[in-house]
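Re-run with default settings, no changes from the original entry. Doing this only to confirm the output is reproducible before filing.
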Amino acid sequence: MCKVKEEQPVPAAQLVPALPGVLQNASLLQAGGLGHALRWPLMGCLTDDLLLLELLCAADDVLVPGGELVSSRPHENAPDAVTDTYMVDGGRLLLTLWHGRLHEVIYRTQAESVEDASRRNDRLFAHYGQGDAWTEILDNGFGRTYRRTDQQRYALWSYAMDITTFGTMGFHQVKW
């Protein structure tokens, strides 16, 4: 099974900073050279229970408990890749399977507030970072692109649309 069963504590240093100017009430921290982190009080919201998956797990082992498969179609830019879209609590989850493995997870799970989005991103970046930090590569005014320090994973966060993507660099090179 590729679903993570137990959640690990989230290091604050893994958080992706949100929109500048909106965060006037946030507490910024510099954490061991790993980047900035925002601390928010913990409050319950739909994005707190998002499904965490393991990239590169076998396609047959991908489970989306409670999710309803609403479409499955070939990826438009990557030969032999298929993207499955699931309705889950809080929005949609898009999973791209390529060469029999999970290579990309897209969370279209809009948060109700900046605080909820920051907490969700903190959790997601910590999980998909697997102990490695993330480096911001680009901010194009619509979103931010990141690379994990080992250069094996990428992340995209569209702060304009509040969509977060995690994937393998092998798949990233093929799809673009």
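Helices lie at 114-129, 169-175. The two ends are 29 Å apart (CA to CA).
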